[in-house]
């Protein structure tokens, strides 16, 4: 899970998110990724450094655009932390079911 909230400029986090996802997908496409990138800022951050805020907003939009364009089946882009929680719970349940099936097929041989 990669949450990038409005509480930080997140420039480094945005770069790490893209790098981590692409490398992990190359190595093993069985991993799932849930990404949340808020597209606005805490008002205080916006006033503290308008240039950093502008660059961060640009980077956030670019990362979201690229993720949508790539359209990986194991990358889930959500809008808020509540959705991130919901998706993670469903993914966990899905993984649990897959493990049950895997264990069943191993024990029945």
Name its key features:
mainly alpha, elongated
Structural class: mainly alpha
Number of DSSP E strands: 3
Strand order of the largest sheet: 1-2-3
**How would the global form be characterised?**
elongated
Taken as a percent bin, the fraction of beta residues is 5-15%
Query: What's the mean pLDDT score?
Result: 84
First-last Cα distance: 36 Å
- Range of helix content: 55-70%
**In terms of per-residue confidence, which ranges show pLDDT below 50 for 5 or more consecutive residues?**
none
The largest pleated sheet is described as: 3 strands, parallel
Tally the helices.
4
Description:
The protein is mainly alpha-helical and 109 residues long. The termini are far apart. Strand 1, helix 1 and strand 2 form a beta-alpha-beta unit. A three-stranded parallel beta sheet has the order 1-2-3, with helices on both faces.
